[in-house]
Amino acid sequence: MIDLHTHTTCSDGTDSPFALVKKALATGVTTLAITDHDSTAGWQEAITAIQPQIELVLGAEISCLTDDGISVHMLGLLFDGENKQMQQMLSDSRDTRIPRMRKMVELMQADGIAITLEDVYAATPAGATVGRPHLADALVARGIVKHRDEAFVELLSNGSKYYVTHAAPTPVDAIGVIRASGGVAVIAHPFASRRGETISAATFSDLVIAGLNGIEVQHRDQNMEEQKTLTSIAQELNLAITGSSDYHGTGKLNAMAENTTHPAQWEALEAQANARRVVRV
Length: 281
Prior knowledge:
The radius of gyration is 18 Å and the shape is globular. The chain is built from eleven helices and seven strands. The chain is 38% helix and 14% strand. Strands 1-2-3-4-5-6-7 form a seven-stranded mixed beta sheet. It has two domains: 2-94 and 167-270, Metal-dependent hydrolases (TIM Barrel); 97-156, DNA polymerase, domain 1. By secondary structure, it is of the alpha/beta class.
């Protein structure tokens, strides 16, 4: 089984990188991608956990904004982790998250919601990139909502009055950096409408020109009709089709390997990187 989208405590997951790999092994995953938000901090620890039964794909999920303000997530896989341009882009994105979180907390406080920035920090694992899931966890800890999913539906979706955008590369720029650093770019859950406004089908042509390699089609936040449309787009534009869990541990309902990528699609995707960077023992 091939799962190309997972998270650890280095961003907003609840499993350490080591524990994530062990969970994947126990689940029967044979190819696992670690894709923390705007971070490669978990790579080395994850490498220490791999066994002959599993190979590791190193990557990151890059937070992007279109020119008209639509949030897009771009999976960068198999890029050179030492590439300075890539690490600068990831660092710049992380640096904008704290001012953004402070503003979201202030908006909630103005409406009488009893939450503080200190609560969010307390819910954020040491070394993790602070994000909305940690705000959700803080809201749960305060008893304001029952679980993360409720927090996102009621308070933290892209369309919420409390949502604040942050400085981020455009999808085209992110693809350019991923490709320049030798990796492959897969747009994550592009039609996940329950998260907020999504890009249109027409957008994909520009992304392909920029170097897009694949589309994450099978994902729990995209219904069957959305997945059917994305499959057609991928086939028309000769893009790889992936399926992934977007696993976050206990923080979300997503189960490890609940969606997976066909081996032939992964083979075609991996071949487009500029070097063989899958980690094996």
